[in-house]
Amino acid sequence: MANKTLNLDDQLYNYLLGVGLREAQVLRDLRAATEGEEMSVMRSAPEQGQFMALLLKLMHAKRVLEIGTYTGYATLWMALALPKDGEIVTCDISEQWTFVAHRFWETAGVQDKIHLHLRPALETLDELLAHGATSSFDFAFIDADKVNYDAYFERSLALLRPGGLIAVDNTLWGGSVADADNCEPDTEAIRAFNEKLRNDERIELAMLPVADGLTLALKRP
Ligand code: CA
Predict the structure, then answer these.
(1) Cα 119–147–214 angle (5° rounding)?
(2) pLDDT(4) > 80
């Protein structure tokens, strides 16, 4: 019996998905459509998508910011969890991958809730800030290029209402963050980001070993 989080083997992970995952058919289809694709490792884990959907419902979230759309799998989980008048502003630079996303958002009938901005996310975030969107979002999900994590976080924090939540993906980065010999730029960026958040008085912090590491930061009033 362990009192720390288990490193799941395939057998236990499949059990977890078997008893714990309620994935809509359209989500399963999207996952299947991107399986084996060059960048399929970038898709969020299904149990993580479900967890974020639950968080949105718990918070009665209406406005969501997503940085890093990829094929829109996490976007779709969140869009399905939002009320009819909910909205997701999602940022990506890849026309190729978000093209796949559009198809499944339409199938699910949630395309009207999703606004995709195809250009560098920092431009979109700065424009939102310049146009008075400060403190207007309930939830933000950061899952894009790691060297910009801090810049995404700072802007997301400004765009979030007090009591709003930021979820940051890949904060354990395959374990490399704990390996002092790993000096890859992405690893260094995530490591510095994690260390910054540890002492950040503006937030409540929880760091979960879900999927590749999921950090939750609640904006204090
Ligand atoms: Ca990710």
Answers:
(1) 95
(2) no
